[in-house]
Amino acid sequence: MSRMISRRRRTALMFLPAFLLLLLSGWSTGPSALITEQEPVPAGDAAHGIYEYEDFERAKKCGSCHSDIYQQWTRAMMSQAYVHHWDEIEYFRLAVPHAEIKPKVAGVKDGCNGCHAPVSFLAGDTPPPPPGEGSFADEAVTCDLCHTIVGFEGETPYNYNYQVVPGRRKQGPREGIESPEHITVKNDFLSQADFCGTCHNEQSPWGVWVKSTHLEWSEGPYAEDGVPCQQCHMPPAPGRTAKMGSQVYQDLRQHLFHGAHVESKLKGVIELVMWPDMDELVPGEPMRLSVALFNQKAGHKVPTGSAEERQLWLEVEAVAADGRVYHLPVDLKGFEGEEHSITSNAPAYQDMGEPLGIPDFAGLPRDDTPFEGDRIFSLPYFDEQGRRTIMQWNTASQGTDYRIGPRETKIETYTWTLPDDIALGEITFRATLNYRKLVKSVGEYLDVPADEMEIIVMNTGVTRAEVVDW
Ligand code: HEC
Ligand code: HEC
Ligand code: HEC
Ligand code: HEC
Ligand code: HEC
């Protein structure tokens, strides 16, 4: 690869006079922009360092004309992926030190940036300057990165295998758009799920899919119905592309990129409906409660993406006529590895001791939820020694995937023997589906700000029955 770059640089020098001419005639491209869309554009790890920072434009500049889109983007995680507290902590405190001591994961020192600080990655400046110093890394996934992506390499989009050709030509979804600032080219790739998949699928050094949002989507009903990611995360609505835009489009692509960090996106994703197996319940006798969970909103599994640290669990309780509350543990289904789909505080994440330099690290409570014995919809990630890990790059294998697929319905049951002394009268069963972005024990241990670990109620369900004296 380095041979290829040096050849490119030599070529750039040979054409210097022609390039200066281009400059005089109004072109503002850098030498490395001599890579054109026609020749094979390096992708993935091979693209590390093939460009320079000067080849890209700052988001603020795009924002001076595309003001609404710019404001949307600054509020989305897309622009925060480098400066956001937890990203900074995980990269600088865990990933970089780990890469330095463990050859198998050495690649992540550069690799994390392929998705989180892509311009720094392409400029070969990794690790990038610390967050908050105003470098290009702070812009994370920026306008000029996405709008100079021309395609991707290979069959499956993953591990930043997008192909970037920076310069005056901006890739967009429409034909024949005129701008005083740049040339625009219609590129259907931007409207396809594969575009997003280049960063929303990730493989660990062991070849395990540690992020598979695009793959989950592609195997599900939304791919079949022709509904790409953009439809739900960049929904079309009337608006002007730029302040001086020629017209109001009815289907302007809104740059919302709303996901797990936007409460209204999480609310109601899964619907809950519940029922007891009979209307009249008897003290001292068993009954069975059922809860149906229907994934009605998401185009992929829930939780998706960083499934090593996202938590979705169901708490069920019965409230008797006298107000007394009973917590109900879920019935086991008996599938292999089910213990990872039942909340537990057993010690886990011992591999964090490696980058933190703590030999024989005892680990942290695995789920750290209010109750043990609840159903948790999870995909467990394991290190080489079979221990649970939240360091997705250290994942050697995975356990049973018990998450809720797109338009899938899961039914959980609760077999419960009513206490002999339970109050007679109406009994209320309540179900609460909780969501948390990061395991609490891990976040607290690493001093991650509390908002990352707050519990968000995704949905609730309720049903009633009568307790009668037989
Ligand atoms: C260059 C890599 C890249 C591309 C291409 C990309 N993303 Fe992202 N995306 C990221 C990163 C990195 C984050 C932020 C991760 C973080 O720090 O929370 C992110 C965040 C998101 C989030 C917010 C997640 C949350 O936790 O709130 C959504 C939604 C999203 N992307 C959707 C999309 C869609 C839809 C596309 C395609 C139109 C796309 N992304 C293309 C890298 C990318
Ligand atoms: C001087 C103002 C200005 C600046 C700065 C600017 N643009 Fe534009 N851009 C426009 C105008 C005007 C249009 C066309 C609007 C229309 O036709 O309604 C446009 C259109 C676009 C389109 C739409 C193409 C399509 O297919 O619909 C994209 C994508 C785009 N710009 C990206 C960018 C990016 C990325 C930047 C920063 C690197 C940028 N622009 C900077 C004025 C600007
Ligand atoms: C994660 C990648 C990504 C980022 C970051 C991004 N865009 Fe886009 N943008 C897209 C995609 C994808 C489309 C087309 C979506 C479609 O066709 O469904 C698009 C469409 C556009 C359009 C055309 C809208 C229309 O409907 O005509 C403009 C203009 C634009 N983007 C400007 C910007 C500007 C300015 C920024 C930065 C403030 C930006 N984009 C950031 C991916 C991105
Ligand atoms: C039918 C609508 C729909 C489609 C299609 C869809 N999503 Fe989502 N997406 C959602 C909803 C709803 C959520 C919130 C629930 C969640 O976080 O799991 C979400 C969440 C996300 C998140 C946040 C996950 C996290 O934990 O940080 C990302 C990232 C994301 N989607 C990316 C994508 C990508 C990439 C695609 C295409 C391959 C896609 N989505 C397709 C509806 C959709
Ligand atoms: C292939 C692209 C890709 C690579 C490589 C990658 N990430 Fe991410 N990362 C994402 C995307 C996309 C998200 C956000 C949405 C989701 O959860 O799917 C994310 C989410 C995260 C989050 C969660 C942020 C939050 O607010 O909850 C952290 C932390 C993180 N990544 C750190 C890292 C570190 C450290 C590395 C390197 C070891 C890395 N990532 C490598 C794409 C990537």
Topology:
Blueprint: H1 2-14, H2 16-24, H3 59-63, H4 67-74, H5 85-101, H6 108-116, H7 118-122, H8 143-146, E1 149-152, E2 162-164, E3 169-172, E4 183-186, H9 193-200, E5 201-203, E6 209-212, H10 213-218, H11 221-224, H12 229-233, E7 236-240, E8 248-253, H13 263-266, E9 270-276, E10 280-281, E11 286-295, E12 311-319, E13 325-327, E14 347-348, H14 353-356, E15 364-365, E16 375-376, E17 381-382, E18 397-398, E19 409-417, E20 425-436, H15 440-445, E21 456-467
Task: Report what the structure shows.
With 470 residues, the protein is α+β, with helices and mostly antiparallel strands. The chain has 2 domains: 35-253, no CATH class; 263-467, Immunoglobulin-like. Helices cover 23% and strands 23% of the residues. It contains 15 helices and 21 strands. It has helices spanning 2-14, 16-24, 59-63, 67-74, 85-101, 108-116, 118-122, 143-146, 193-200, 213-218, 221-224, 229-233, 263-266, 353-356, 440-445; strands at 149-152, 162-164, 169-172, 183-186, 201-203, 209-212, 236-240, 248-253, 270-276, 280-281, 286-295, 311-319, 325-327, 347-348, 364-365, 375-376, 381-382, 397-398, 409-417, 425-436, 456-467. The strands form 8 sheets. Strands 10, 12, 13, 16, 20 and 21 form a 6-stranded mixed beta sheet that branches. Strands 9-11-19 form a 3-stranded antiparallel beta sheet, with no helix packed on it. A two-stranded antiparallel sheet has the order 1-2. Strand 12 (311-319) and strand 13 form a beta hairpin. Mean pLDDT is 93; it is low at 1-33. Bound molecules: heme C (HEC) (5 copies). Residues 193, 196-197, 200, 213-214, 217, 222, 227, 229, 231-233, 259-260, 265-266, 269, 297-300, 302-306, 310 line the site of one heme C.
